[in-house]
Amino acid sequence: MATVLYEVNDRVATLTLNRPERLNAINEQLPGDLRRAVERADRDNDVHVIVLQGAGKGFCGGYDLVDYAQTPGEMHGNQDMPWDPTLDYTMMARNTEDFMALWRSSKPTIAKVHGAAAAGGSDIALCCDMVMMAENARIGYPPARVWGIPTPMMWVYRLGIENAKRMLFTGDLISGREAADMGLIQDAVREEELDGAVQALCDRIKGVPRNQLMMSKMVVNQAYEAMGLANTQRFANLFDGIARHSPEGLWFRQRAVDVGFKQAVAERDSGDPIAEGASKDLGPLPAAKAFPDDND
């Protein structure tokens, strides 16, 4: 499991996203590795708490745009047109299921976020039961501006309707302090205090029997599942594929190929209108076909 490291010490399993050379960006391998690591901790009777962190400079910078956007040609997530939405749905639903292993685990899961949990990185962090951040860390889903929809869609369940819409309408990256004040995460502390704060939280939890922790987690989770979490994710997984193949989504991908993903992201996040006139390049839609009336 090269992309996720696994360690157990004193009833706490620490999982480390391990692609520091790419800011722990998500490639094809990482979601499955993460799921297997969570399930390994779930089976371990010596583990009472699971902590998820990132190696290097940050937690997770999202999907690897070098692989998924900047590289020309057809690949998973970037089909030539006409595209098959079921392929996109299958891919993203599988990744969402892998990330949601953190939600399904019978043991409490804590995301420890330094640097950034951006885009798909925020998806992973928000699937955990609790998130602890450095005050100067950042979290958000910038592809909501163009080219993506957060597939686990935990924003609405953590924030409520108005703040969830604010985050998705703007694609803002907010600080750990703002995320805590908004109620998105458990708490934010100074970066040098983050390890100690997460350890203190683990120390309070790890003495509780595993069966008690399991029951407490299940009874809370089922309330959100009864609110339609699974159906919300079905829509989000479908819409994510549509967002990547809309006129503006295709523009963003081509822009990343032409000038590099960093410049394309800077243009996307600048606040200027995104891909004005992109839909005009597709030409007029074909005329609707007439079908004979049953009485004809």
What is this entry, summarized?
With 296 residues, the chain is an alpha/beta fold.
SSE map:
Blueprint: E1 4-9, E2 12-17, H1 30-43, E3 49-54, H2 65-70, H3 85-99, H4 101-104, E4 109-113, E5 116-118, H5 120-126, E6 130-134, E7 138-140, H6 155-159, H7 161-170, E8 173-175, H8 176-182, E9 187-189, H9 194-205, H10 210-226, H11 229-245, H12 247-259, H13 261-268
Parallel strand pairs: 2-3, 3-4, 4-6, 5-7, 6-9
Antiparallel strand pairs: 1-2, 7-8
Helix pairs in contact: 1-3, 3-11, 11-12, 12-13
**Strand line-up in the sheet with most strands:** 1-2-3-4-6-9
Q: Approximately how much beta-strand content do the residues carry? A: 5-15%
Figure out the total of helices. Answer: 13
| Mean pLDDT reading | 92
Structure report:
By secondary structure, the chain is α/β, with parallel strands linked by helices. It has 13 helices and nine strands. It has helices spanning 30-43, 65-70, 85-99, 101-104, 120-126, 155-159, 161-170, 176-182, 194-205, 210-226, 229-245, 247-259, 261-268; strands at 4-9, 12-17, 49-54, 109-113, 116-118, 130-134, 138-140, 173-175, 187-189. The strands form two sheets. A six-stranded mixed sheet has the order 1-2-3-4-6-9, sandwiched between helices. A hairpin with a 2-residue loop joins β1 (4-9) and β2 (12-17). The model is unreliable at 282-296 (pLDDT under 50).
